[in-house]
Amino acid sequence: MDFKTLIEAEELAELIGSEDLVIVDCRFKLADPAAGEQAYAAEHIPGAVYAHLDRDLSGKPFTDKGRHPMLSPEAMNALFSRLGIAHTSQVVVYDDMRGAIASRLWWMLQYMGHERTAVLNGGYPTWTAINGPVASGAESNPSTQFEGTPGSIPLVTIDAVPDQTLLIDSRTAPRYRGDEEPLDPIAGHIPGAINHHFGLNFGEDGRFKAPAELQQSLKTLFDQTPTEEVTFYCGSGVTACTNLLAVAHAGLGNAKLYGGSWSEWCRERM
Predict the structure, then answer these.
(1) Active site residue 234
(2) Is the dihedral of CA 132, 133, 137, 140 positive or negative?
(3) Exposed site from 3, 173, 204, 220, fewest CB < 10 Å?
(4) pLDDT average, residue stretch 10-34
(5) Residue 149's CB: how many other CB atoms inside 10 A?
């Protein structure tokens, strides 16, 4: 079976040791950038390699100038090769924030054409909840020669933002309204955007809601706008990917990502 959106902890447990399985730990905390890697070294899913949000999943400005600039296609290919991802790999990514960070790597792989990528539903806490085996220290995979092609799902740049049919802000309601802004120099949102915090995709157990429930709420959010004309953004192009994952898991196809997000917009257009 191919997993292209989410995978449950029990399903992952059955795949451990499979030759084509690549697991990537993406745990990260904005307030303490070293914490995720330290947690990985102390304990992680066996076979998992680590990807750091600042160091691995972001890079020099290419499509945007946000706080976490999207990597160039060449840099993405180099990253995936270093992580040991081949075109035949089933990739599973996880964090401990319900997929808020791991979804970024999910999106990058989908963008480069690698569909066999799934986020662990509920993240690392669901793995420990089933008493899954753990390992410690740093692990690595034999390098590969990944050669993906960008554009399998759409990426929006700043100049195209005003032309978007429906723009959705993925941050919390207080940040969207401009009541608070803990990370960027200006509070508020992009003119015309509506709000759908990515946390609304989860149930009380920390897992994504069922596809049918997600589909109902997202269709209401989109109103009559086709999925391919919907664009999500957040603070820096990371947590918006969680909304994009929810859209895909709901069976609604692929929406767009504005990678620079508010961190770029507030600096470049205000």
Answers:
(1) yes
(2) negative
(3) 204
(4) 96
(5) 10
Same fold, 6-129 and 155-268: yes
Task: Please say whether the structural domain 6-129 has been given the CATH code 3.40.250.10.
Answer: yes
Residue 174 DSSP class: H
What are the tokens at 19?
């030759």
> CA-to-CA distance for 42 and 270, rounded, in angstroms?
43
> Alpha-carbon distance 230 to 264, whole Å?
19
Q: Are 118 and 110 in contact (CB under 8 A)?
A: no
Helices (H), the chain: 9-15, 35-42, 73-83, 102-111, 124-129, 173-177, 211-222, 240-249, 261-268
Residue 165 has pLDDT above 80, yes or no: yes
Each domain of the chain, given as residue ranges in start order, spans: 6-129, 155-268
Question: How confident is the model over 150-172, as a mean pLDDT?
Answer: 97
Query: What is the average per-residue pLDDT within 46-50?
Result: 98
- Say which of 26, 234, 241, 266 is annotated catalytic: 234
Domain 155-268 fold:
Oxidized Rhodanese; domain 1 (3.40.250)
Tell me the pLDDT band of 53, cut-offs 50, 70 and 90: very high
Name the average pLDDT for the chain: 97
What one-character-per-residue DSSP string does 49-103 give?
Answer: EE--TTTTS--S-SS--SSSPPPPHHHHHHHHHHHT--TT-EEEEE-SSTTTTHH
Among candidates 267, 257, 266, which has minimal Cα distance to 160? 257
Mean pLDDT of 164-188: 97
At 270, is the pLDDT very low, low, confident or very high (cuts 50, 70, 90)? confident
Q: For residues 113, 30, 25 and 260, what is the CA-based torsion angle, rounded to 10 degrees?
A: 0
CA separation for the pair 133, 59 (Å, rounded): 33
Percent residues over pLDDT 90 in the chain = 99
